[in-house]
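hiii so um. not sure if this is the right channel but i have a protein structure encoded as tokens and i wanna go backwards to a sequence. like what aa goes where. can anyone help
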């Protein structure tokens, strides 16, 4: 089953991993998918990769990773 990495406006959670089937339900209507994964394991790997990339980006800027800025970075890179 395919999964989506999603975010939601004004949500304290960094990301949501939602199945293709569930994303179609009204419960998840507010989520915005920005990346797809072939299965659950792939979804977790993609999330880990995004977190690592964000940390690398922060360190290149001479800063410690501040995950309150993660969503803005995510939209800039994958928007």
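sure thing!! here u go:
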């Amino acid at each position: 089953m395919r999964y989506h990495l999603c975010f939601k406006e004004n949500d304290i959670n960094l990301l949501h991993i939602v199945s293709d089937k569930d994303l179609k339900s009204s419960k998840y209507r507010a989520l915005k998918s920005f990346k797809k994964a072939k299965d659950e394991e792939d979804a977790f790997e993609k999330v880990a990769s995004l977190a690592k990339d964000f940390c690398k980006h922060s360190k290149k800027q001479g800063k410690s990773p501040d995950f309150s800025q993660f969503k803005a970075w995510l939209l800039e890179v994958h928007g």
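oh and The CA atoms of residues 22 and 43 lie 15 Å apart.
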